[in-house]
């Protein structure tokens, strides 16, 4: 999949992904410094009451993997897990 507008879109909108371990839906924002901020949009059933955190900052030098704030599981967001399309288009 080639998306030439990806970088422009990324600056404005979070990338949606899902933790393969706890099924939480995550929003991934890139920070100006090159790091990423992962925030939980919906907690997965298994971590609904036990989530470690709802937001996590990942420094630039930590590689392609991101860490799930809820279960602390690490995964590659560009790997086998598909991005989930945004549920809402124009909610501000
Ligand atoms: Zn998780």
Rounded to an integer, what's the Rg over CA atoms? 13 Å
Helix content: under 10%
Secondary structure category: mainly beta
Mean pLDDT: 82
The proportion of strand residues reads 25-35%
Q: Which regions contain 5 or more consecutive residues with pLDDT less than 50?
A: none
Number of helices: 1
End-to-end gap: 28 Å
Ligand identities: zinc ion
Order of helices and strands: HEEEEEE
- Gross morphology is globular
Which strand order do you get reading across the main beta sheet?
1-2-3-4
Report the biggest beta sheet as strand number plus sense, adding barrel if it closes.
Answer: 4 strands, antiparallel
- In total, how many beta strands? 6
What report would you give on this structure?
With 92 residues, the protein is mostly beta strands. Helices cover 8% and strands 27% of the residues. It has one helix and six strands. The protein has one helix at 6-12; strands at 15-18, 25-30, 36-42, 55-58, 66-67, 74-75. Strands 1-2-3-4 form a four-stranded antiparallel β-sheet, with no helix packed on it. The protein has a two-stranded antiparallel sheet with strand order 5-6. The mean pLDDT is 82. The structure holds zinc ion. Zinc ion (ZN) is lined by residues 19, 21-22, 24, 68, 70-71, 73. Zinc ion is lined by residues 19, 21-22, 24, 68, 70-71, 73.
Write the layout of secondary structure elements.
Elements: H1 6-12, E1 15-18, E2 25-30, E3 36-42, E4 55-58, E5 66-67, E6 74-75
Antiparallel strand pairs: 1-2, 2-3, 3-4, 5-6
Bound molecules: zinc ion.
Zinc ion binds at residues 19, 21-22, 24, 68, 70-71, 73.
């Amino acid at each position: 999949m080639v998306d030439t507008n990806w970088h422009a879109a990324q600056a404005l909108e979070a990338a949606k992904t899902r933790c393969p371990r706890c099924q939480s839906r995550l929003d991934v924002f890139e920070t100006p410094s090159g790091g990423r901020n992962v925030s939980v949009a919906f907690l997965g059933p298994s971590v609904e009451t036990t989530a470690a955190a709802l937001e996590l900052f990942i420094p630039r030098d930590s590689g392609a993997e991101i860490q799930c704030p809820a279960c602390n599981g690490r995964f590659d967001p560009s790997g086998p897990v598909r991005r989930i399309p945004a549920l809402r288009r124009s909610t501000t």
